[in-house]
Design a protein that fits this description.
Elements (H helix, E strand, L loop, with lengths): L12 E2 L5 E4 L7 H11 L8 H9 L2 E7 L5 E9 L4 E9 L8 H13 L6 E3 L6 H6 L18
Parallel strand pairs: 5-6
Antiparallel strand pairs: 1-2, 2-3, 3-4, 4-5
């Protein structure tokens, strides 16, 4: 088995937009804020319990966007991946007060660049309302959705 092309770093500091920094360090995440954002304002995660947010963070590659001056978390994205063939981008959220400054696009560009060395075959996501933002960084509708299936567990 060949080694991972770029071993994941617990505390990678990645390029961010001016005034912000992006980190993959899960210890920097403001879990209380993430839980509030997701469980009260994200249509896909309404009422998600704190324990599920914590378990999801523990099992994922996490990207936090932070104000450089204060360290306050301004955005988040989570990636579930085997770091070899597949990734699922999920729980992408930009704080309402930080929207409109390009943070979402910058975060997605950072996620894409961070995952590129793994040589993944595909990165999937689902969105009801942000197709334009994802298209800016190269996401496209699935060409043949009839091939895809899912198993709903809830």
């Amino acid at each position: 088995m060949s080694p991972d092309p770029t071993p994941p770093s617990r505390s990678a500091l990645l390029p961010g937009p001016p005034g912000y920094e992006i980190s993959t360090d899960p210890d920097r995440l403001d879990v209380g804020t993430l839980h509030r954002w997701l469980s009260t304002d994200a249509y896909w995660a309404l009422d998600r319990p704190l324990e599920k947010v914590e378990r999801a963070i523990a099992g994922s590659l996490n990207f936090g966007v932070y104000e450089a001056a204060t360290g306050a978390q301004a955005a988040y994205a989570r990636v579930v991946t085997d770091r070899a063939t597949f990734a699922w981008l999920c729980d992408v959220y930009v704080d309402r007060q930080a929207r409109g400054h390009g943070l979402g696009t910058a975060l997605l560009e950072c996620v894409r660049a961070h995952l590129a060395p793994y040589g993944l075959r595909r990165i999937l996501l689902a969105t009801a309302d942000a197709h334009g933002i994802y298209a800016k960084v190269g996401f496209q509708p699935i060409a043949d959705p009839d091939k895809w299936m899912y198993l709903g567990m809830e």
